[in-house]
Every structure is written in C-alpha cells, then in structure tokens.
Design brief:
Chain lengths: 640, 480
C-alpha cells in the first residue's frame, strides 16, 4: 500500500515495532493507519507516534455493537508480544470503548490521540445505520479529521452467523445520510469522509464518490487478491492458504505478493478513470457528492424491487454559499493551548541529551491530556523503551483536567499534588504517575475520590500510586501497568490482561469481569469481596503465609527494596506476600499514604485480609510456560 | 466439519489398483478399497470451507463437506442420505467420474485434495451392503404418463426422479440391456454391470417400466409416444462418432471404438457375438487414435483380449506435468494424466496426425503419421502445421477410432420428430425448462449438451425431471 500511496490499516491488535522502519528496497511495512479499538491492544505511545492516521474504531460494519474475541490458542508468542499479553490466554475486545460514553468523551479521546501524535489525522470509524449522520456531525464537531462509514458487506471471516446474516446495513445508506447531514450543517469541508464495507470495483468507488465519500476502504478484495479463498476459518488458526494465521507451517502456503495488490488497485483505478470519463468529470473531487448522476436501474424486474424508493439516498442537499461539499479544510484541535508545549520546551535537554530535568508547574482542569504530547516526543525519539527512569520529573499542583498522564512514556514521572479527573493514565506506556492530596487539606485521603473513572484504560506498562479512592472501571483493559490505589468503584480490573493492581480499601461490584490476565490484590476487611467479584474467569486465593514467601526469597538472597519492578512481575504465581509488601512500601514512599503506613506497621494482621484475584486461564498459561522453561533448563543441564 | 486440523495431521490416501499383470487377466473391477477407519480419517481432512468450491466443482452439487463430516463421525447411513439427496447414482460416479470436485477442493491448491470420490464410493457401497438402499415408492400417483427415450444415466436419473414424484414412467432402450454407454461403452473392469442391474431393480420397484430392444424412430415410431404419453423426454446419447477421413479408412480392421467396446461387454455378459462381425485385439498390434477416456477403454480392453502392443496417438500436444494453480484452480486443469489402462503398457504419442492407412488384401497393415507443430496465430487461436520430414509409419492390425462424438444420431427419431437442433447438432433446449422445440417433448443429457460425463448426465436428468414435473403439475417439489 505504501508503494502506491495508499494507506493500510493495522486493525485492532497493534503492530510490530520492526515494521516502522523502512526496508532496504525503499518499501515499508508500516501501516499508515493505526487503529485504536475498544481493546486498546498494542496501543503504545510508540505505535501512535508512528502513524499518519489514528483511527478510533467505534464499531465494525459487519458486526455493529459486538466486541471481538481472540481465542487463547491463536495467541502465540508473536501476537502476545504485539498485544502485550500472555501467550495462550484469550483476549476479549469489549463491545464499547470504556472511555467513550458520550460525544464529549469521544472528543476527549480524539484530543488525547491528537496530542500523542499531532501530525496524525484522527479518524473515527462508524457503522452505516439510520441516524449515523447525526453521529457523524458530532464527530466532525468533536474535531475528528476523518470519519469512516462502514457497511455490512465483507469483513465477516470469522464472525458468527448471526452477525453475518442479521447485522449492519449497506454503506450506501449510511454514507448518503452522513454526507447530507454534514453538508446541511456546514461540517463537511473540515472532515474527510471514508467509506468501506465490501468495496470491490471501480464502480463501487464511483458510486461512493457520487454519494459523498472522499476516501475508500478495501479489505476483502485485496485479501482475495493475495490468496484468501473465504474459508471462514480465521478463528480456528487453520487457514489453508496462510492468510489468517501465524502458524509457520500454514504461512508457507501463502503465495500472495505485494505486486498482486498493486495490480489490483491499478485495475480499480483504471475502471474509475473510465467511469469518470463517461460521466464527464476531470477531477475526482468534482465528482464527490454529485448524487444527481445516480439513478435507480429501471431494468430490475423483481417483486422485492417494487417497494424500493431511493430518492432520499440519492437526495442532493442544497449547499449554501461557501459551504464545501468535500474535504478541503482542517480541524482546529486547540493544541496550541496545551500545557505540554511548555513541558516540551522545558524538557528540551532531556529529549535531546537524556539529561534529567525537573519541572514544577501549576495545573488547572482546563489543562486536558497533560504529558501526552511530551510522551509522543519521547516515543518518536526513543521508541517504546523511552528514556531512563525519572529523566523527566514533573510535579504539578492543582486539579488536572481529563486524561492526566495519558500515554505517559517511560522516563517520565508525573507527580500531581491535588486531584485527577477521568482517564488518568489512559494508555500508560512506562511512565510513573503519583497522585495525592496536598498535605494541608483536611480531607481523609483513603475515604475520598482522588482520580475519576476509567483510570489506566488500556495501559501497557508503567506504575502509578493513588493516595485515595478511584472511580469506576479502574484499570479496565490494563495490559501491564502496576497500580496501587486505596479503593475502587464498580467494574474494577474489567477485561484486564496483565499487570498488578493493589486495592487497599473497598472495591465496588463486578470486580474482575472478563479479566483474563494479570493479578490483583484486594484488601477485604469486611470479608465480603467474594460477593462483589465477578468469578466467571478468576479464582480468589489467600496470600500464602509470609514465612514461606520470605524464606523462598531468602534462598534467592532477596532484599526486597533492591528488587526492581522486573523482579516483582517475574513469577505471578508465587512470592505474593513479598510482592504486595514491596508495592505498598513504594506507594507509601511516593504518596506518603497513612493507609499504607498503617498496613505496613500491622503487616501480620493485614496480610491474611488480602485476597489474590487470579485469572484461571492466566494461571494455566503461566504454568505451561514454566513447565516448558523447566524442561528446557533440564535439557540444557543434561547436556553438560 | 471433519477435524479442524485434520488436513494437517493426515496424509491424503487413495484407493490403489491391483497390479497391472494381475488385472489384465480379467474384466472385473480392480480398485482396492480403503478400510472403513481409513475412509473416516480421510473424511477428517475436509475443512468444511466457508466457500466450498467442491460444491460448484461437482456438476450435481454434491454436499461434499457434510458427508465427509458424517463419515468422519461414523454416521454412514446419514451420509448416504445426504449423498443421495443430490445424486441418484453415487456408485456410478464413485467409479467412473473424473472427480472435478477434487480438482476444486481447497486442498488441491497443494495437490492433496480430499479423496472425495473414494469416500463417495465407500458410502454408497456400504449402503448397498447394509441394505440401506431401498425403493422409495411414491405415496401418491399423479396419473400422468411419461416416456423417456434412452436409458443412460440421464434417462435413469430422470426416470427415478419422476417415478418418485408419482408419475408413471416408461423407459425405452434400443439395446437389449439398459444403461446406455455405461452398459456397453464403459468396460466392465472400470464398472461392473451388476451395479446397473441392482439400480434397475430399484427403479422397477419404484414403478419404472423398462422397454428394451425398442428403438424409437425405428422399431417404434416416435409419433406413437407423442400420442400416448403426457410428456416425452429424450435422453439418448451423443452417438455420432467423429470419423477419420483419410485414404484407407475403408480397410478392414479400422473401426470406431463404439463398434469394438460393446462386443466385449456383451461377451462379459455371456452373449455370443456373430463371428462375421466379431472383433478382438488378440494377437494384434493395436493403434488407438484419440487420447481421451474412450481411447483408454480401448487400450484396457485390447490388453485383456491379448493385444501384442497398443499405441495411442493424440493430435494435441502433450499437456504439462503440473498445472499453473493460480490460473486453473478451482477449475478442471489441463494436465498430464495417466489412466489405469494407459498404465497397463500402452505407448503414447502426442502432436501426431494420421495421414493415411495402408493395407493388403483389404486388411489394414500400417498407418502413416506425421508430427504436428502447434502455434498460436495473431488472434490467439491455436493452429497446427505438419512438420516437414517428420512422417513415420506404425505397424497396425487393428485401428480403433476414439476421437470423440460429434452429436446425437440424427436419422431416425430426431428426424421423424423434426426437433430443432442447436448449431452443434444437439437437440436444442435450455437448462431451465429442458423443453425442445416440440410441445411436451424434453431433452437432457448428451443428446442435449453433447458428449459429456456421467455426472453431467445425472444432473441434467434430475433437473429435467423437475422441469417435466412442473410442466405437468404446475409446480414441483423435486430439487433442481
């Protein structure tokens, strides 16, 4: 796609960083469009920084309203690496984005992503359905640069039959409504409209353009060009032509070549050119939205066709003077007002020379998405690994706006003295976030909310310590971040696949729903946590007696304080007490938590009150990996 | 679906043949079937493709993945029901179909398709063995009378479908036994004739009346059928053989394949051939002209009769050993194939034309051949030119012409009916209505489409039966 100036889309699930570099022959495997879906798998700051377009997938045309699932047996080592998860453990993409419950939330996510990579266009993928025009108008007002309208055709490789047969609607309907609504409200020219869903031919493209699309998405057709034979076995990992599998044996059967795709698109383009010539258009832009050139075919003589009235699909809205009917302008994202401009300026030394810097600034709730643009700069220069720990040390005072520390990269430590809002640490990528109330405040920290809802959503790595209670959906879809908090609302650790969460207080209902990886330690003083935990995918375990744990650590010559984070995440099936204690110690150290101090001072009393939340599949996968490693170790020893 | 990973775990394994030296001693089948558990395992290789190309590859649209799975599950009787739902006579196709389904199989991309034909044959053979195949007698009779002319696979399929729909069916055959080319064209070593007999018994029980030795347009005027029956279906063969118009064609010992092959089939049935016309390859050098299936049948029969040598000549160039999958799959590829008969010791030669036949005392002694050069002309059409100086002679005592069939025989019934023919000389009818130019006269099989496979004949017979049922009753429950 890069050869012919097209843009390939990563889809959900991330992209290997190796692909970001150009190849020797000038080709590039990098996908220009990076998708951000509800699962946020592999959405690292580096991933976002290496994009031309970032697409928020609100839903899929082929199965609107449904999430996705990658069964455990398909999650091999490569996929696990890209998705920052555990091989062998199934991955669930939730139906909704947990940070989008309103159009304002969407605007916030658009802003977050724009901050992570100001050069990239932000796209929102919507589904063709009645009413999509209104949503698209909202998307345009929310400053998206691009909107995709997805139809129901195509893209159904492994969807359940119910989705294939009974979900979605044609892109023509959604596109016509979108385009007409945008033109009528003078929102069209500032946003690019893309359409996809079973696009095959140049004629599809021309019809799409006449109905108002600037851009076109193809998926099934190029797949078939590369050898897909529509086996519909994508979910079984047995694709016999090696398209929808990572199995090396089956991949050998893959015969597709980039030239095939290039050739296909040249044919499509040639057909478009021919049709444009017939219609009398010189430029593609001239054709966009000229729906008067479309008509219903009179020749179709079928009883089902008798009730069809396309007049509203083919309606061409009156565009007032100065109202553009195709993409010509740009959105104003208001990035010039971001606090990050100041942070980047102050971090210049650290960014250029890795020299540690310390920054102290006040912060207000109008400062949204603090630290993200800075993290984008770090990722662009240093990739996912980022800078050495604590290179950029930021202390802020006040009440932060939404998405504080979103996508914070490794090497950035952010301390917030005050309080956070929603989405603190969203997509955290190695940075450290510490939030605690000012010393002078009279409020009791462990009884009051310190950070809002959906904290750490889609976090990849990093650590955070919150002295106080978090809102709902804490650490939802966390892939690897470590967090200590003094209480959480409902749905804590939902869909989590990795990382460690410590809750030093009450937790709300439905804890650990859909949690397939990582672990959580919850302080259960009332003894009723089991009732509020969703036990569909997890087991609850006591923390083994400290003596055993300490003893086993002693054998390794373990000194808790010197153990880095790598070590505490090393073996999630054991050393619980030691790990827990270390995390609480760090929490207390960074936030000055009195709650933490109290627990540490009465460790023997508190330890039995902790419950370990262990996903069943995760434990199985870890044990399998240990068995493999042990066998390999033994084999190696045997050879000596 | 069989087993999701079956195709990765199990190798393709197909039926084998008895050694050539053994099998040329007799005229019986020599295919060695697989064991039942091995068949089940082969069924597990089927992947239940989202788009099952085998469905389209098979002319009768056999629901192949379903019965592959049932065989894998060990549910043979259900598999037989599914198999019979699209194919009246799987034991014929399981033996003599070239299996375009296997060419279309997704696994054929890597040249190891599911052994569909073997599984099909195993299902139906087991069905006969277990007594699962019983007459399906129509619960209600319609009172309509239908005449079917020609008892090949198209006629038999149409007869069975129509009888099951409750019609009174009379099937007319000019030969002394039913089956058409399956009876007298195809040698017994490829398909034993008892397979036809037991089907015939089933059809009779279902209410089909057979009239052998009844040559419509000859011993019985076609007009009589039009007068007596509510519908007439023409399911004759494409029996006008392509001739070789070269000097010496009239010599004794130069015969059409279809003069030669039926005699041996009759002998196998215990008939005595009149010595005046009897024809055998015993002790002769045989030349078979034509590289197709009929040619192969001549080869196998000649070897069994005791031919000294058999040479097969083909006018087209030798096809490639391996096809270009990207261009051919899932269609039937042109590639080098070797039939079991060719494998019994025939010499084959390609790009060869016969220029003349030589003889002494009116009997053939040799043929004169010339090599050809095939080139595409400016319009992309393949044109052949003789290679100068490449003439050669082959010794010949018997020359068998197996160069295909041009169209059905026109004299007799077709002329009497004065039915409209298509430009190729076949009876004109479409594949929706199967209706000829004459009211209430239908046509299906080779008579309509020209020389083709048994499986195509079955398809046309079935579809034609539905068209006839619809024509007579206004609607039809028969499948298309």
């Amino acid at each position: 796609m890069n050869r012919i100036g097209g843009k390939s889309n990563t889809g959900e699930g991330g992209e290997l960083p190796e692909r970001f570099k150009s190849m020797e022959n000038g080709d590039s495997k990098r996908s220009a469009i990076k998708q951000v879906a509800s699962g946020r798998f592999g959405v690292t700051t580096e991933y976002l920084a290496n994009s031309d377009v970032i697409q928020i997938k609100m839903a899929q045309g082929a199965k609107p309203g449904e999430g996705g699932q990658l069964p455990g047996h398909k999650v091999d080592a490569t996929i696990a690496r890209v998705r920052h998860s555990t091989a062998g453990v199934g991955l669930i993409s939730p139906p909704p984005h947990h940070d989008i419950y309103s159009i304002e939330d969407l605007a916030q996510l658009i802003h977050d992503l724009k901050n992570a990579n100001p050069q990239a266009d932000i796209s929102v993928k919507l589904v063709a359905e009645v009413g999509v025009g209104t949503v698209a108008a909202g998307v345009s007002k929310a400053h998206a640069d691009h909107v995709t309208i997805a139809g129901f055709d195509g893209g159904t490789g492994a969807s359940p039959l119910t989705s294939i047969k009974h979900a979605g609607s044609p892109w023509e309907i959604g596109l016509a409504e979108t385009h007409q609504t945008l033109v009528m409200n003078n929102l069209r020219s500032r946003i690019a409209v893309q359409v996809d869903g079973g696009m095959r031919t140049g004629r599809d493209v021309v019809v799409g353009a006449l109905l108002g699309a600037d851009e076109f998405g193809f998926a099934t057709a190029p797949l078939i060009v590369e050898g897909c034979i529509m086996m519909r076995k994508c979910h079984l990992n047995t694709c016999p032509v090696g398209v929808a599998t990572q199995d090396p044996e089956l991949r050998k059967r893959f015969t597709g070549k980039p030239e095939h795709v290039v050739n296909y698109f040249f044919f499509v383009a040639e057909e478009i050119r021919e049709l444009m010539a017939q219609l009398g258009f010189r430029k593609f832009d001239d054709m966009i939205g000229q729906s008067q050139h479309l008509n219903m075919r009179k020749a179709i003589d079928h009883w089902k066709a008798q009730g069809l009235d396309f007049s509203r699909v083919l309606h061409k809205p009156e565009a007032g003077p100065g109202v553009g009917i195709y993409h010509t302008g740009k959105q104003d994202h208001g990035l010039d007002k971001a606090l990050d401009n100041e942070l980047i300026a102050l971090s210049r030394d650290a960014l250029d020379n890795k020299t540690p810097v310390k920054i102290e600034l006040p912060v207000r709730n109008t400062n949204r998405t603090v630290g993200t643009m800075l993290s984008g700069e770090v990722a662009k220069r240093y990739g996912h690994a980022g800078l050495p720990e604590d290179t950029i040390n930021i202390t802020l005072r006040g009440t932060a706006g939404q998405s504080f520390g979103a996508f914070a990269a490794h090497g950035i430590s952010m301390e917030l003295i005050g309080e956070g809002n929603d989405y603190v640490g969203k997509g955290l990528c190695g940075g450290r976030l510490v939030v605690y109330p000012p010393a002078e405040t009279p409020i009791i920290a462990e009884e009051n909310i310190i950070v809002g809802n959906t904290v750490l959503y889609g976090a990849i790595s990093g650590e955070c310590y919150f002295r106080g209670v978090a809102g709902e959906r804490f650490a939802v879809r966390n892939s690897g971040a470590i967090a200590v908090v003094e209480g959480v609302g409902d749905h804590g650790c939902e869909y989590m696949t990795g990382g460690i969460v410590v809750v030093l207080g009450e937790s709300g209902r439905n804890f650990a729903a859909g949690m397939s990886g990582g672990i959580a330690y919850v302080l259960d003083e009332q003894g009723d946590f089991e009732q509020r935990c969703n036990l569909a995918m997890v087991d609850l375990e006591p923390i083994p007696a400290e003596d055993d744990a300490l003893e086993s650590l002693e054998h390794q010559g373990g000194d808790l304080e010197t153990h880095g984070l790598v070590d505490i995440s090393h073996d999630m099936t054991r050393y619980d007490a030691a790990r827990l204690r270390l995390l609480i110690e760090r929490h207390t150290h960074y936030t000055g938590s009195s709650r933490g101090r109290q627990i540490l001072d009465n460790w023997r009393d508190y330890l039995p009150k902790f419950v370990k939340v262990m996903p069943v599949d995760y434990r199985r996968a870890l044990q399998e990996m240990q068995a493999v490693q042990a066998a390999a170790g033994q084999a190696a020893r045997g050879e000596h | 679906m069989g087993k999701p990973t079956g195709f990765l775990e199990y190798e393709r394994l197909d039926r084998t043949y008895a050694p050539a030296a053994d099998r040329v001693q007799h005229y019986n089948e020599f295919v060695i079937p697989l064991k039942e558990n091995e068949i089940s395992r082969q069924g597990a290789r089927c992947m239940d493709c989202g788009i099952p190309f085998c469905h389209q590859g098979c002319p009768v649209n056999n629901i192949i993945p379903d019965w592959n799975d049932l065989v894998y599950q060990g549910n043979w009787q259900e598999a037989l029901t599914v198999l019979h739902s699209t194919n009246n006579f799987p034991e014929f196709t399981g033996r003599i179909c070239p299996a375009p389904c296997e060419a279309a199989c997704t696994l054929n991309i890597d040249d190891n398709p599911v052994t569909i034909k073997t599984i099909e044959c195993a299902i139906v053979d087991k069905g006969w063995e277990e007594g699962w195949i019983q007459p399906q007698i129509a619960a209600h009779k319609t009172g309509k009378h239908i005449a079917i002319v020609g008892s090949g696979p198209a006629g038999l399929a149409a007869a069975q479908q129509l009888a099951r729909a409750g019609h009174e069916v009379d099937l007319f055959e000019k030969n002394d036994r039913i089956g058409g080319l399956m009876r007298y064209g195809i040698p017994g070593f490829k398909m034993e004739k008892k397979t036809i007999d037991r089907r015939m018994a089933q059809l009779q029980a279902e209410g089909v009346t057979f009239h052998t030795d009844t040559h419509i347009g000859d011993t019985l005027p076609a007009k009589e059928l039009l007068d007596k029956f509510d519908a007439v279906v023409l399911t004759g063969g494409s029996e006008h053989s392509r001739d070789l118009e070269v000097p010496g064609r009239e010599l004794d010992g130069v015969h059409f394949a279809m003069t030669f092959l039926p005699q041996q089939n009759k002998r196998n049935e215990g008939d005595i051939i009149d010595p005046a016309i009897s024809l055998t390859a015993e002790g002769k050098h045989v030349i078979v002209i034509g590289g197709g299936d009929t040619g192969s049948d001549c080869i196998g029969t000649s070897f069994r009769q005791g031919a000294l040598s058999v040479t097969q000549l083909e006018i087209l160039p030798q096809p490639p050993e391996k096809e270009n999958k990207a261009l051919t799959w899932p269609d039937w590829p042109n590639k080098m194939r070797t039939s079991s008969s060719q494998d019994e010791g025939a010499v084959r030669d390609w790009s060869v034309a016969t220029s003349s036949i030589e003889g002494e005392d009116g009997k053939v002694t040799a043929i004169n051949c010339v090599r050809l050069d095939w080139k595409q002309d400016d319009n992309g059409q393949w044109k052949m030119t003789e290679v100068p100086g490449s003439e050669f002679q082959l010794k010949a005592d018997l020359v068998l012409l197996a160069m295909g069939f041009v169209h059905p025989v026109h004299t007799g019934m077709l002329q009497e009916l004065d039915v409209t023919l298509d430009p190729r000389g076949n009876v004109q009818a479409d594949t929706e209505q199967y209706q000829t130019s004459i009211d209430k006269v239908f046509s299906a099989g080779d008579m309509r489409r020209g020389q083709s496979l048994v499986v195509w004949a079955i398809r046309e017979g079935r579809q034609c039966a539905r068209a006839v049922d619809e024509f007579l009753m206004g609607c039809s429950d028969l499948p298309r």
